[in-house]
Specification:
This protein is mainly beta. The protein has no helices and 6 strands. It has strands spanning 2-4, 7-9, 12-15, 21-24, 33-34, 40-41. It has a 3-stranded antiparallel beta sheet, with no helix packed on it. A 3-stranded antiparallel beta sheet has the order 3-4-5, with no helix packed on it.
Length: 52
């Protein structure tokens, strides 16, 4: 989870071919975006799904 001037977002962190950090969505319709200069990591999101 990252906080920016636009608010908090849950994305994956990754790097492009040149080594620049990106925010990457799990949704295929959303393109990766460059890591914002004001971004601060505020947590890690964990999820577990089970069949009831």
């Amino acid at each position: 989870m990252v906080r920016t001037a636009d608010g908090a977002v849950v994305k994956r962190a990754g790097k492009n071919a040149s080594g620049a950090w990106l925010l990457i969505s799990d949704h295929p319709a959303w393109e990766p975006v460059p890591w914002p200069r004001d971004a601060v990591v505020i947590g890690e999101v964990k999820w577990m799904g089970v069949t009831l």
